[in-house]
Amino acid sequence: MELDDLVSPEGVIAHLKATSKKQTLQDMAARAGELTGLSERVIYETLLERERLGSTGVGHGIAIPHGKLAQLTRLHGLFARLDTPVDFESVDDQPVDLVFLLLAPEGAGADHLKALARISRLLRNSTVVDKLRASDDPAALFAILTEPVSSAA
Q1: Distances (CA, A) of 17 to 24, 92, 135
Q2: Residue 84 and which of 6, 14, 98, 134 are 20 to 30 A apart at CA?
């Protein structure tokens, strides 16, 4: 599974101006609502429900909030680069500035897990993360996220 199957250029936010975890999730839910046609509120509540189980802040300034929605027919991804890092209650207590949101259909068990693993692998690559942090152009961010991964990586 490649990330261009998940995220579209419209799903990349180069300058998210959120000042808190709540606002980050709200703003990303709003964009996800525009892209999926689903209610922003339903998306936000789904993300919040998942956060109550434990923070999706995975460390090193990265968060991967995710959730399943019965109304979806396929996986959807969104990426945001925050202008100012926010507290995400991450496992390493570091503020988050890169957020990859994943939404999946209710019955997408294995595909959902594969997509999470793919996103996690990409965001563990320090070269990719450095490039994402160095760019503030949506098209460049999309290109970085979707460039094919070499077998050497």
Answers
A1: 8, 23, 16
A2: 6
Instruction: Verify whether residue 76 is a known catalytic residue.
Output: no
- To the question of domain 3-146 being in CATH 2.20.25.90, the answer is no
- According to the model, what pLDDT value does residue 61 have? 97
In this prediction, residue 153 carries a pLDDT of 40
Extract the tokens encoding 114: 């594969």
Pick from 117, 104, 118, 41: which is nearest to 73 by CA? 104
Residue among 15, 66, 76, 112 flagged as catalytic: 66
User: What pLDDT is recorded for position 95?
Assistant: 97
What are the C-alpha distances in Å from 74 to residues 78, 82, 102, 109, 131? 13, 26, 11, 12, 28
pTM: 0.94
From first CA to last CA, the distance across the chain in angstroms is 16
Six-digit token pair at 9? 């250029």
User: What is the distance between the alpha carbons of residues 130 and 105, in angstroms, rounded to a whole number?
Assistant: 31
**Spatial distance between the Cα atoms of 28 and 8, rounded to a whole number of angstroms:** 14
